[in-house]
Amino acid sequence: MALFDLPLDQLRGYRPDPDEPADFDAFWERSLGEAAAHPLDAEFTPYDAALTAVDSYDVSFAGWGGHRISAWLNVPAGAEGPLPTVVHYLGYGGGRGLPLDHLVWPAAGWATLVVDTRGQGAVNHHSAGSTPDPHGAANPQSPGFMTNGILDPETYFYRRVFTDAVRAVEAARSHPSVDPARIVVNGASQGGGIAQAVAALSPHVKAAFVDVPFLTHYRRAVEITDKDPYQEIVRFLATQHGAQEQVFRTLSYFDGVSFAARATVPALYSVALMDPICPPSTVFAAYNHWAGPKEIEVYPWNGHEGGTTVHRRAQLRKLRDLA
Predict the structure, then answer these.
(1) Using CA atoms, how far apart are residues 197 and 185, in angstroms rounded to an integer?
(2) Domain covering 21-322 assigned CATH 3.40.50.1820 in the classification
């Protein structure tokens, strides 16, 4: 993929006004309040992962609508005292897989909660998921998740996902191995977009690692990339004539730029300048609005894979400072 977006010097100053409705904060306060009416009821069942250095738990808790959400909790074996913890959100289409897929953070001495994304985890080569989405789409949709319920913010898929993700932080904090004051949220692509939202919506997050985030600056994304998942929105609009105003009104409640502007904890971002899936200008739009301390690692010659293990090393060093 060639360089196709703004040059880096312009990206560093790219700070478009957030496209958000007047009731953005009220919408999320109400959404989280409705979820809080359901007991969290977090369950941690010891799981035989055949690992000697990590203790694993099969986790279930009540997310949006009281629906059960699955996760894994990996804890360094023999660790004493409550541990700093990474709450990890997954990329588009992926599921939680198995505990052995998530060993980097425990190897650094951190507990890790790996959160399933409802309805996902049965796509191509991605890891399997085990969390259904009992709340069906309220409108015709392009295959995928981007247009599920997109004609109304009340029914939009990511209202449920972001709410689940906030509840996941609460579930992690309820386990005795987790230090409730040292929670870092993390994810790449869809997971990065979810982490952005949770950092703004949860008062219990200490820091955020946001990698090549999806679900950010939607209007520009659909106009400059022809790659999925953003193209799901384009295909929807190409058939549902006259829906444009409703669609972008809904998306304005879920835009990472608005969440970033409300997040005050330290953040470490990554961006790849040849990323055709999450264009770099959409990442910088959120990063430049982030309200707390922040750093961004730029990978000029990478695509959506971002900085891969080189960036993970940077994150591990940052975790060491936060511990």
Answers:
(1) 10
(2) yes
